[in-house]
Every structure is written in structure tokens, then in C-alpha cells.
Amino acid sequence: HIPGAVSAPTAENVTADGTFRPPADLARRFAAFGAADGTSVGAYCGSGVTAAHEVLALTLAGIPAALYTGSWSEWITDPSRPVATGPDPG
Question: Which is more confident, 36 or 17?
Fold first, then answer.
């Protein structure tokens, strides 16, 4: 993964019926990942599709967010870019 990234699966942004969780619930969820108090967040995934969902959830939570449209598939095309492995943000 990109160093500094934290995994926040998009499936946890929605309720059982597929609608977004209330903004306060999303804000608590993202705060647990360290995104709170005006923190700007960049979201990415494999190709940018699910990251767009994440940006919307972050926006609903009141957290400024931007989509890295190239996502992982673009990041890895440049061998000079750092890569982290394992569960830690690195």
C-alpha cells in the first residue's frame, strides 16, 4: 500500500440495506482511523472506483477528502515511489 495509508473498507460505510450510515456514525468511524478535526484525507483503491465511494462517505462525515484517481494501479507504475507492506500505515 501507499505509505501512510490506512485501510477503511467501504462496506462499513453503509447499513444492511445499502444506504449510507448517518453522518455522525461515519464521523466516529473515520475518527477511529485518525481522520478528524479538519484533517484532509486522500482516498485510493485499486483503480479509483471504490475510493470515490469513500470520498462521498468522508464528505458526509464532514471530513475534507480528495480522490487519488490513479489509485494503486497508477502508483505502482513508478518504481521510485515507496511501497509499504503489512497492516501498519508504514
Answer: 17
Which is catalytic among the residues 45, 57, 61, 63?
45
User: Using an 8 Å Cβ cutoff, are 7 and 38 in contact?
Assistant: no
CA 70-40-57 angle, 5° bins: 75
pLDDT at residue number 53: 95
Domain 10-75 in CATH 2.60.40.10? The answer is no
Task: Give the angle 83-9-78 at the CA atoms, nearest 5°.
Answer: 25
11-16, long-range: CB < 8 A, 24+ apart = 13/53, 13/54, 13/57
Q: Is 57 marked active-site? A: no
Domain ranges of the chain: 10-75
- Write out the three cell numbers for 50: 471504490
State the chain's mean pLDDT as an integer: 93
